[in-house]
UniProtKB/TrEMBL annotation, chains A, B, C:
Function: Catalyzes the phosphorylation of the hydroxyl group of 4-methyl-5-beta-hydroxyethylthiazole (THZ).
Gene Ontology BP terms: thiamine biosynthetic process; thiamine diphosphate biosynthetic process
Organism listed in the record: Bifidobacterium goeldii
Annotated metabolic or biological route of this protein: Cofactor biosynthesis; thiamine diphosphate biosynthesis; 4-methyl-5-(2-phosphoethyl)-thiazole from 5-(2-hydroxyethyl)-4-methylthiazole: step 1/1
Pfam families: HK (PF02110)
Residue ranges, compositional bias (Polar residues): 7-20
Any one GO MF annotation of this record: ATP binding
InterPro entries referenced in this protein's UniProt entry, alphabetically: Hyethyz_kinase, Ribokinase-like
Leading EC class: transferase
Name used for this protein in its record: Hydroxyethylthiazole kinase
Binding annotation for substrate: 71, 234
Amino acid sequence: MSDDSQTHCCNDADNTNPTGDLNDLTDLRERIAQAVRDVKKTTPLAQSFTNFVTINLVANAQLAAGGTAAMSFLPDDIIDTASISGADYINVGTLLPFYKDALPQIARAFRKSDHKWVLDPVAAGIGKTRTEILRSFRAAPPTIVRGNASEIIALATMWGLISADEASRPAGVESVDEVDAAIEPAKKLAAFLSASTPNNQAAVAVSGKVDLVTDGEHVYRLPGGSPLMEKITGAGCSLGGVTATYLAVAEPLVAALAASLLYNRAAEVAEAKAEGPGSFQVHLLDALWNVTPEQVAGSEILS
Amino acid sequence: MSDDSQTHCCNDADNTNPTGDLNDLTDLRERIAQAVRDVKKTTPLAQSFTNFVTINLVANAQLAAGGTAAMSFLPDDIIDTASISGADYINVGTLLPFYKDALPQIARAFRKSDHKWVLDPVAAGIGKTRTEILRSFRAAPPTIVRGNASEIIALATMWGLISADEASRPAGVESVDEVDAAIEPAKKLAAFLSASTPNNQAAVAVSGKVDLVTDGEHVYRLPGGSPLMEKITGAGCSLGGVTATYLAVAEPLVAALAASLLYNRAAEVAEAKAEGPGSFQVHLLDALWNVTPEQVAGSEILS
Amino acid sequence: MSDDSQTHCCNDADNTNPTGDLNDLTDLRERIAQAVRDVKKTTPLAQSFTNFVTINLVANAQLAAGGTAAMSFLPDDIIDTASISGADYINVGTLLPFYKDALPQIARAFRKSDHKWVLDPVAAGIGKTRTEILRSFRAAPPTIVRGNASEIIALATMWGLISADEASRPAGVESVDEVDAAIEPAKKLAAFLSASTPNNQAAVAVSGKVDLVTDGEHVYRLPGGSPLMEKITGAGCSLGGVTATYLAVAEPLVAALAASLLYNRAAEVAEAKAEGPGSFQVHLLDALWNVTPEQVAGSEILS
C-alpha cells in the first residue's frame, strides 16, 4: 500500500510478498512449515536485550521452539554477539538509566550492519525515558515490531506515521476487537519498516484476541490461542523472542506468522491440560517443544 | 494503642478498625471476601519495584490472584504508572547503585500524591546502601510493611520506634515462635505508619510459622501454610506483591489479612499435590487462582 | 601436576587429594555423601552475584539441594553477607556497566578474607567488559571454576595458563567429546587456583555430555545426565550455584563432584517424567530435592 505521509516509504512492485489468494497462502504455509523445521534443525541463536520480569521465559521459549538463547545488556556484549546471532530481540520493559544511551547505540550498530531485529515496544507511551528511546529507533528501525494494539498505535504515533487524531480515535469508540483499532497504524508501521530495510521486507505483529500480522500490504488474522495467556507474565515477550528465533531463518512476514501461530497452537494445548496459570506456563513450554511444523503451518489464517 | 515514644504517632478514636470481638471478626471476614472478589472482578493494577530473583513470581502471583502487574525501576516510569496503579509494591532486595537516589525519590512522590504502597524490607540491616534507603522511607512511609520477624524488628529499630535494647532482646531468648518476638515492634511500626497516612489506616504483616497481621492496635494470628514455602524463593516477595494487589481495592488491614490468608490456603493445597519444591511452586500459582473468596475469608483467624 | 608456565603454581605433596585408586574412590564417595547430607542438615547459606536470566533457578536449585540462597549485586551488600555465607557464587552473564568496578572489588575482598567462591565464566571471550573483569580475577582467583569446555579454555588462555596455540587447537580437530578438548586447560586452571589458596585446594568442573572434574592432579569423568539440560536455560548456572552450596560444607573437589553428580542423577529422574522442557525443569527441581545422598555418592565415577 502507498503511504503518502512518509518520504521514506515506498512500494516494491517486485517484492515476493503473498497476495492473499489461495496459491499464495499455500506457498506461505510451506514457508512457515519450513521456518519451524529450520529452527528445530539448525538451532539458530537469537540474542535478547529484554526486561527482567520475563527474561527467563523468553530464553526458555526460544529453547523450546528449538533455537538458542543469549541475553545481554552492555553494548559491547550485544554488538559482539550480534555477529554470531541470526537476529536480535529488544524489549523496552524495566528500563535502567544506562539504557537511554545503550539502546540507541545498539540500534545504530544493527542498522550499520543490516542486522535483523525484533522490537517489543512494551508500555510505549509511558515514561519520558522510554519515549526518548523509542523515538530514537525511528532512525534505526527494527525489522519486525510485535506488541499489543495500544503499543503499536503509540509507536506509530510517536514516529509520526499516524496523526494524534487517528491514534486517539480508537480509544473513543467501542471496537469489536481492540486489535481492529491497530490495523491502519500496524500497516503504516510495517510499510515504514519495510522501506527502511535493504530488501524491503518487514512485518508488524499485533497480539490480541485475534492476532494480526501485516507486511504493510497484506493483513493476516490468526484466531485461537487461550485467555490464560493474559494470566501469565511474559506470553507476549516470549512470543517476541521466538519471533526473533524464526527471523534468524526466515523472512520477516513468515517469521511473524510462524511465531504467532506456534503460540496460538501451543496455548490451546496448554489450556486443555492446565489447572491454573502455574501449570499453564509449564504446559505452554512443553507444547512449544511438541507442536509440529505441520500443525503450525496448517493453522487457520484469515487474509 | 498509644505509642509514647513517637511524636508522629497518635490514635484515631474514630477509626473504623475492628475491635476483635465476634461481630467485628464477622465484619472483617466479609470485607476480606469482598476484597478477594473485587480483585477477581476488577483486575486492579499494582505496580512493583522489586528484586531480580523473584520478580517473575511476583508478577505471576499477582495475575493468579486476579490482578494486573507492571514492573518498573526508573522513577519516571514508576511515577507515570502510579497514576493508573491502585497501589505499589517496593522490595529492597538486589539493590543496584542508582536505587539509592531513585527509591527515596519514588517514596516522596508517593507521599505527595497519597499513593498507597507496600514495603518489603528484604534483608533489612544488611549493607550500607540498603540501610540508607530504608532510613529515608521514615519521612515518606508506606501504607503496609510486610516482612519476616527479623526484618520488621530491624526496620522498627532503624526508625527509632523501638530501642536497640528491645530489638536485641528477642535474639537472646528462645521464643516459641520467632514471630512472637516481632509483636511489639510490629505494633509500633503499624501505629507509626497509621499516624502517617491521611486516613490513619496502615498495617504490618509478619510472615512466619504463624503469620501475624496488625493495624497497630489489634493483632491477628493466621495459622497454617506449608513448610515448603521456605523451599522456594519468593514466597514472601510474591505475598508482598499480592498484598499490594489487594491494597488497590481494600483498606490496609483487610488487604494484609486477605493476602496472607490466601497464601496460607494456597500453600496447603499446593503442598498436598507437590512432589518437591518445583511442583510446589506450580501448584501454588494454580491454587492462588483457584482458592475461592469464601475459603480465604473462612480461614482460622486468632485475635 | 606440575605447571611449569606459572610461577604461582606448585604442588603440595602433603595434600589430601585422592589418588584415584579404589580405596581413595571409596573415601571420596563417603565424603561426597557426607557433603550432600551436611547441606540437607545445616542448610548453609551460599550467596550469589549472578545473571538475570537464571537467577531465580539458581536460588531455587540451591534451596532444593537443601541450602539457603541470597542474591546481591552491590559490593557493600555482598561483602556484608559474605561474612555469614559459607561460600559465594559469581556468574558473569548479563553484565551491567557498574560490574566492571564492582566485581574486581568483590573478588579482592574475598581474597583478603580467604572467602571461598565459585566462578562461572559465562560467555568468556565475548565482550570487552567481560574480558576485563575475567582478567582481573587472575589476581584474586576463585576456589572453583565451573563452565563449559569453551569457557574453561577461554579463561585459561586469558590468564596465560595455556598458549593461544593450545587453545585454538581443539577447535581445529573433531574431538569425540568437546569436553576432552578442555582436559589440559582445566587441569592447568585447577593447579593455578590450588596454588592460590591457603590450603592448596581448588577444583575445576567442565560441563558437557560427560562432565569432567579436576583438582589439577586427578581427573574424574561423570557420565549421565540428560540432553534436555540444554533445552532449559540455567542448567549450568544453577549447577554452579549448587556447587557453591556444597563448597560451604566441603572441600572444593568434593563440592564440585557432589554438585555435578546430583545434577546428573536429578536430570535422569526429570527426563523420565518430562513431556518437554517446561515439565523437565519442574521435575528437575523436585529431583534435586528428592535424590538421596547415597544415590549421589553411588554414581558412576570414571577416574
